[in-house]
Amino acid sequence: MSSKKLVELFYDVVSPYSWLAFEVMCRYRTVWNIDLKLRPAFLGGVMQGAGNKPPGLVPNKFLFMTRDLARLAEYFNVPLRPPSDPFEAMFQKGSLSAMRFVTAVQQMEKDGDKRVEQVSRELWRRIWSQDQDIVEPASLTQAALRAGLSETEIQDLLKLCATQPIKDQLKTQTQAALDYGAFGFPMIICHLDGKPEMFFGSDRFELMAHCIGEKWLGPLPDQSAAKL
């Protein structure tokens, strides 16, 4: 088997489309010959740096997004349900503290990114499935507990995510996304023959598979493989 292709997934848990891409890429990391790297970053910084406007602030886009997410949730088998007040959740509260927490988890993780994956997923569940907060320390604590972290580890993470090195690391990761050309999330970077190829959104998997020489087996590849 040829060497694994490096694939980077830039995401923010405030983004529902990022959750869809995240789950699909996590499913495919053992199906495709890829080395998936999770890159938590701050979507607000990307939008500002790219001069972009969130779709939720454009009335017609917001109406479409509501319908679109319901269809996509069913297709991708992700329990995604919009919060009761999406504007408050996405724009008033935002995700800065949540993404600093995820960055701290990544900083503390010694081998792989399993904890980053689990904590990120629990934060998405809170905001995009259970209509719960993701910015208060108690909320971060509950998400981390559900992800399997101990109370001692969580207290250390809460202290760590308030430090300047973690804040700087999140800024660096966000700038890396902008340097690749990001204007929103999710953004997936596939490194092919030493060159980065960017894919935006949660609807480019078939094209991505073609570009990296793999097969798109649908949103649930394990089930699709069993039918072959």
Characterization of the model:
The protein is α+β, with helices and mostly antiparallel strands and 228 residues long. It is 56% helix and 11% strand. It has eleven helices and four strands. A four-stranded mixed beta sheet has the order 2-1-3-4, with helices on both faces. A hairpin with a 2-residue loop joins strand 3 and strand 4. Helix 2 (43-50) packs across helix 9 (164-180) and helix 5 crosses helix 9. The longest helix is centred in the first third of the chain and has 18 residues, at 59-76. It is globular, with a radius of gyration of 17 Å. The mean pLDDT is 94.
Write the layout of secondary structure elements.
Layout: E1 5-11, H1 16-28, E2 34-40, H2 43-50, H3 59-76, H4 86-93, H5 96-108, H6 114-128, H7 137-146, H8 151-160, H9 164-180, E3 187-192, E4 195-200, H10 205-212, H11 221-227
Parallel strand pairs: 1-2
Antiparallel strand pairs: 1-3, 3-4
Relative strand content: 5-15%
Number of separate strands: 4
Net shape: globular
Number of helices: 11
Order of helices and strands: EHEHHHHHHHHEEHH
Overall pLDDT: 94
Distance between the termini: 21 Å
**Major pleated sheet:** 4 strands, mixed
Name the strands of the widest sheet in spatial order: 2-1-3-4
Helix content: 55-70%
Low-confidence stretches: none
